[in-house]
From TrEMBL:
It comes from the Bacteria. Gene3D superfamilies: 3.40.50.2300, lambda repressor-like DNA-binding domains (1.10.260.40). The lineage of its organism: Bacteria, Bacillati, Actinomycetota, Actinomycetes, Micromonosporales. This is LacI family transcriptional regulator. Pfam families: LacI, Peripla_BP_3.
Length: 333
């Protein structure tokens, strides 16, 4: 405890607190004596105790929404891991609707808990509009979203991820790439469509019509049934791995071989992706890096000078993971 450190160092507990918080009013000799006592007693400052002394808790409030989708769930896990590494816990409020009223209610709940700061997952357009009009008064970072004026944000470069998928397929000789999108009101779905179109246009290829999905394996299955009947389809980029999973089943049931007849790429790299049949080529999002950068942005607001190394530019680069679901374009008459 802090009193034990004070007793061993021969100072008051207020002096110990000043040393632990890097206050410049402590003499260097006293500072060194306190730090030696801290090391000798293996003392670790408690974030909750520090927060209460500053009239805030040692928790970070997270506003999420009621979803079982892999991406948002993995983002939350990345934030929790990063928070734990820097001595904070998290308090999550999941809202049923990501609009102004739902977001305001969640923020009110978290502010009432005296959270140190807020992390807001805002992946849909209604959430972005709500965040823009929300007078928070608490340090906050926005995730999975467009830029919001006045608030730092962190996201994966979705357009770059789509380009990786399309360029990989074109490099295998496919004339064009079809796309099964996510829900149209999701910012990430729109960004992946943009990246897909940009890549095809840059290569001088015609973009087929977008097939609308809803992130589910069921929508992937339905799209697969539709595409299996077309002889001009040789490559498909799915907006997430769950849709790719459904598509693989539809193709298998209809005698379409993957990748001999059609190559399929997903997005996210869910843990099961390597064990699908065939193992799925996909775009991996580094959710731990998203969490680390999110906490870096938040700590910059909360505790200047305590920002984790490398928490710079918020755009996190995705990577392509090549597996057996993609191959050379088939030769067709």
């Amino acid at each position: 405890m802090i009193k034990d450190v004070a007793r061993l160092a021969g100072v008051s507990h207020q002096t110990v607190s000043r040393v632990l918080n890097n206050h410049d009013s402590v003499r260097q000799e006293t500072r060194e004596r306190v730090l030696r006592a801290v090391e000798q007693l293996h003392f670790r400052p408690n974030a909750l105790a520090r927060g209460l002394a500053r009239r805030r808790s040692g928790a970070i409030g997270v506003v999420s929404f009621d979803t079982l989708l892999y991406g948002p769930a993995a983002t939350l896990l990345g934030v929790e891991r990063a928070a734990r590494r820097v001595g904070y816990g998290i308090s999550i409020v999941a809202v049923e609707r990501l609009d102004r009223d739902g977001l305001a209610e969640a923020v009110d709940q978290l502010v009432a808990q005296s959270v140190a700061g807020l992390v807001i997952l805002a992946p849909v357009t209604t959430a972005v509009a709500a965040v823009r009009g929300l007078p928070v008064g608490v340090p906050a970072v926005v995730l999975e979203s467009d830029q919001v004026d006045g608030l730092p944000s962190v996201s994966v470069d979705q357009r770059a991820g789509a380009r990786l998928a399309v360029e990989h397929l074109l490099g295998l000789g496919h004339r064009t790439v079809w796309h099964l999108s996510g829900q149209p009101d999701w910012i990430e779905a729109r960004s992946r469509i943009d990246g897909w179109r940009q890549s095809l246009a840059a290569a001088g290829r015609v973009a087929p019509p977008v097939i609308s999905g809803d992130w589910s394996a069921q929508s992937g299955y339905a799209a697969g049934c539709e595409l299996a009947a077309r002889r001009d389809v040789t490559a498909v980029f799915c907006a997430n791995d769950q849709q790719a999973l459904g598509m693989l089943r539809a193709f298998r049931e209809r005698g379409v071989r993957v990748p001999e007849d059609v190559s399929v790429v997903g997005f996210d790299d869910i843990p099961e992706a390597a064990y699908l049949s065939p193992p799925l080529t996909t775009v991996r999002q580094d959710f731990d890096e998203v969490g680390r950068r999110c906490l870096g942005q938040l700590l910059e607001l909360l505790e200047p000078g305590e920002r984790p190394a490398g928490a710079g530019h918020p755009a996190v680069a995705p990577t392509l993971v090549v597996r057996a679901s993609t191959g050379p374009a088939p030769v067709r008459p």
